[in-house]
Amino acid sequence: MNATLGARRRAADRTATVLITGCFLLGLVPLVWLLYTVASKGWHMVVTSEWWLQSQRGVGFRDPGGGALHAIVGTAEQVALCAAISVPVGLLVGVYLVEYGRGTFARVTSFAVDVLTGIPSIVAALFVYAVAITTLGGQRAGWLVSLALVVLMLPVIVRSTEEMLRLVPDELREASYALGVPKWKTVVKVVVPTAFSGLVTGVLLGVARVAGETAPLLILVGYASGMNTDLFAGFQASLPGMINDQFVNLGSGGQAYGLDANGNRVPIHNFAPDRLWGAALTLIVIVLVLNLVARLAGRRART
Amino acid sequence: MMTGLLTVAAVAIAGCSSTSTTAGSNTGSPITGGAKTSAAAEVNCSSGTLNAEGSTAQTNAITQWINDYTKHCTGATINYNPTGSGAGIKNFTAGQVDFAGSDSALNPAKGEVAAAAQRCGGSPALDLPMVTGPIAVAFKLQGVDKLTLTPDLVAKIFTGKITSWDDPALKAANSGAHLPATKITVFFRSDSSGTTENFEKYLKAAAPADYTATPAKDSSQSGFVGQGKAKSQGVAQAIGSTQGGIGYVEYSFAVQDNLSVAAIDNGSGPVELSKNSASAAAAAATVVGTGNDLSLNLDYATKAPGAYPIILVTYEIACSTYTDPAVATRVKDFLAYAATGGQAALAGLGYAPLPASLQGKVLASINTIH
Amino acid sequence: MAARVRVAAPEAAPAPDPAPVPPLRLTGSGTARADRLFAAVTRGAGGFVVVLVLLVAGFLAVKAAPALRVDRVNFLTSRTWDVAGHRFGIVDMLWATVTVSAVAMVIALPLAVGVALFITQYAPRRLARPVAHVVDLLAAIPSIVYGIWGILVLAPLLRPVQDALGSAHWIPLFGNEGYSTGTIFDGGVVLAVMILPIITAVARDVFERTPVAHLEAARALGATRWETIRLTVLPHGRSGIVSGAMLGLGRALGETVALYLILSKPPAGPFSPSLFAGGETFASKIASNAAEFSTPTQTGAYLAAGLVLFALTFVVNAVARWIARRGDAA
């Protein structure tokens, strides 16, 4: 009797192990596959120096050369401005919800953050368009993209801040209070520094969330194939914008054809796919590097 | 920073509006491309930035012009955003861009003419036909690479009245071809597009008995059967990967994926798609714009011999008078290049150059911009 | 990250209501003022978020109104979408949005829970950390790339799966509508790949925080690894799984560019409930027609669709909170 029960339990345990390991492997397959696709199709662009030093100014889809510098600079500026707004506000909201928030208003705030999480990027972009351009009569520019991205980044920052602050043991807070340190100083000098490396991870998750957004670019800024460092005027490129631009001539992967002067079909080399995957890989590499840097910084801050 | 440097460097040149000839003789120039256009072949450079937006159908043409023009005129920066004709017109009238690209002329009934005039400080905006874009009826069918279709057959296929490649009506029009009993799979554009609208206009004009829907950019009310795919690239890709597939795409996309393209018989024999046959159809169009406005009325049902009738003509829409004369000069210089030297680059990209009769008018109209 | 310390607060992952210890009042009036000011600033930031949400909702409603006023069919029950003819009905979009998200959830949720269990309960720490970071990194892949990969690489390979399921075509959901790729099913699978990291991240977080005492108690009673999971980890993490699922569902409902590239637009015709037909979701329809937002009515029609999408995510979040709270109470 006991033996059969034991066998059944062992069998259940083994089945569960197999199933859960299977889930893990199955879940990783598409993700690794996608990463591999991007890396294998994009690496030969990314390893050239001109990719990091030149723009696409004057380079057509059948012309070799050119790089992604204009897009990297645009993405860096747009995301930096977005983070400059989202991070402080998000941190404060997180602090409010964990350290102060009680009662109806806190519940409403927390719910609002949840709803913000669900706002589709295209709706966020339409919102900014209606306010800044239709109502206030402004010109499209990179900074409007940053504003739309704030709507998407803010909830990520708030949620991760909450998680990290909750991990800070209450004993620390109590010790601080016992020493007569006021609450606000406890939060600023004790709680936040303790959770610092976790907060940095949260910020990077937020950056990863918005850096690849395409929808706001479609309506809030034009794509420029050349360099424009001005976040507040003119068309500006970004990495997702560049991907979208190259998509027009992507083709279906086989040999590409063009027409000669007499209208006959001739094989050509189409550079659009290389640039598209290259831009996608660049975005992933940048986020990866930021991640590593932040992790190192976090480790140093702790020691 | 880069732009800044270039702008500074170019100011000196811009002052005297550097001029160079780009006829066949000047082979060293990046803008030559064997220009055999009739009109004046000189390029005036003006430095500074121009922003434009609109039709996706002319993307590759205008991008090529921009690349050639800015290589030659290093102080000039021109951006073109292919977001669609409607967005182009909207952003032009809102003053967001300096000129628009559009697959259809400004529509007075929608108030676009009035809105554009207001944007141009009271002066009328000009519709300038600049590119002829043939629309290919592309297909993929085992063992068949030549196919002739009449307007009625195209309409019947796209509305689901003909569903198999061995339909007697198709066989009758293609006596030489061996048409298999494959099911026809129709692909159309899912996103709002001037290509869809022009294709529907063609069906409505040339096959009124078989096509009754109102032409529109959104394909929701088109009456087409089959599947809608995003962008020309999506339609071309779907046709290429589906045995028995057929769809309409701009010619360059059919070429890029090496798809077979049907010849169209509008009543005077089958006409293959080429730059010459598309230009011939554009020449059959009549100018309906007044003054310097050159909006066209395309004759989709044309029976002119050697004219491929399914075309769209995309316009650049610019102000006749700009409040900033510097912008006016930039627009004028760039569009003048596009209408002359730039036309030679079109054939290689799957577009057709403007017919000579129209090109002179376009250039004359551009020269009045100030 | 280093802090592997248990918190006193209840573990309903994103839910608020922590119970920090009340501060001791050992301070003078100046510090009290600073304290109040700091509290007010953080509260103000919270207020900003609330106002932002209200503004987005209000703006959508105001802009959608002109279109809804001239709508000649019932907005909520009609299948017709004819902008020129002022007929705006959302049934088809609602169906596509819900089914494509449902397919994504059915695939992603069990997988995500499995992946999170593996990382927290089975994998050696040395392996678990890097894997978790790789999974997080996937959030950086632009959705347009998911879309391109989905339609060019994945969808053709899903064809056999579709055909196998399609052999059960007497089930309306599996009816054959003649689509090779670009079906709701294809879209759902790609969405599942997109939201898998999101759900996994949240589930991983709560599983990691299963009280050690519970785990040890279970093991002390001689429970196998699976029994430990079943008796402690899963019950403890239930509300976290729900909120992670809702987070993923929110992303799925609003996903724009990937679905815009993948989903085939069905022709006008009789309604098909099949997963192997094409469809247009709210967001993909808006993206398809963003170029033609020229008149207030036209724009309003699409914004009205956006408003329904907004309401849908609102409801999903409300339900999630309710479930999470009930889970805590139990």
Explain this structure.
Chain A is an all-alpha fold and 303 residues long. Helix content of chain A is 73%, strand content 3%. Chain A has a two-stranded antiparallel ribbon with strand order 1-2. In chain A, strand 1 (256-259) and strand 2 form a beta hairpin. Chain B has two domains: 29-132 and 284-366, Periplasmic binding protein-like II (D-Maltodextrin-Binding Protein, domain 2, 3-Layer(aba) Sandwich), CATH 3.40.190; 135-278, Periplasmic binding protein-like II (D-Maltodextrin-Binding Protein, domain 2). Chain B contains twelve helices and 16 strands. Chain B has helices spanning 2-15, 59-72, 85-93, 112-119, 151-158, 168-173, 194-206, 231-240, 251-256, 275-283, 325-339, 356-366, and strands at residues 19-21, 42-44, 48-54, 76-81, 99-102, 125-140, 148-149, 185-189, 227-229, 245-250, 260-261, 263-265, 270-271, 286-287, 296-297, 311-319. Chain B is elongated. In chain C, strands 1-2 form a two-stranded antiparallel ribbon. The longest helix of chain C has 42 residues, at 29-70. In chain C, 53% of the residues are buried. Chain C has helices at 29-70, 91-122, 125-137, 143-166, 184-208, 212-220, 225-254, 257-262, 282-289, 296-329, and strands spanning 81-82, 87-88. Chain C is built from ten helices and two strands; from the N terminus they run αββααααααααα. At the A-C interface, helix 1, helix 3, helix 4, helix 5 and helix 6 of A face helix 1, helix 2, helix 3, helix 4 and helix 5 of C.
DSSP helix fraction of chain B: 25-40%
Tell me the count of domains of chain B: 2
Largest sheet of chain B: 9 strands, mixed
CATH class of the largest domain in chain B: Alpha Beta
